[in-house]
Fold:
Amino acid sequence: MAKFKSQPRNVGGPVVVWKDLFTPKELDVIEAYGDSLMPMRAELAGRGVAAEHQRITRVAWMTLNPDTQWLHARLEEAILHLNAEFYSFDLYGISEALQYTVYDGAEGGHYDWHVDLGGNDVEPRKISMSLQLSDPAAYTGCDLVLEAGNGTCFADRARGTLIAFPSYVLHRVMPIQSGVRKSLVIWVAGPVFR
Structure:
């Protein structure tokens, strides 16, 4: 397993924070690649509909290809480390494209309370991760909030912070008030919980 510059830490219940998994230059590369993709209005997983009362955001999909191979490899190593230290879930790995997500203040971007179960056409999601790509000074509002059984947890907003949690944890992204927030959402699949 790779030696990481920093280590993840548990911030309460099943929520784990990992800072500095990527360098600022690597974050710039991820963001530039995401910006080069064709964004679409996000739909609710498994429903094929946009429900603006539930979610307003634009997304693009980062598939595994030569340009993203390094990113997938780093994330897979991080997942192995996180799972060994905090979760001990049976996992397959990343089985879906990475979701490049943009919340825009001009659009009233938000995502109300939900869990990341996914649709019937994907492997069961077991770990969800959100990589903060925007500098927190670039926007107001738009906090990632989790209800993980031990009270409300507001995710760290620092650029480059990775937040990991079991996909069954209730969470939301509060409405953005101004600016633009970008993040990369990753789902890790595995056999159905028993």
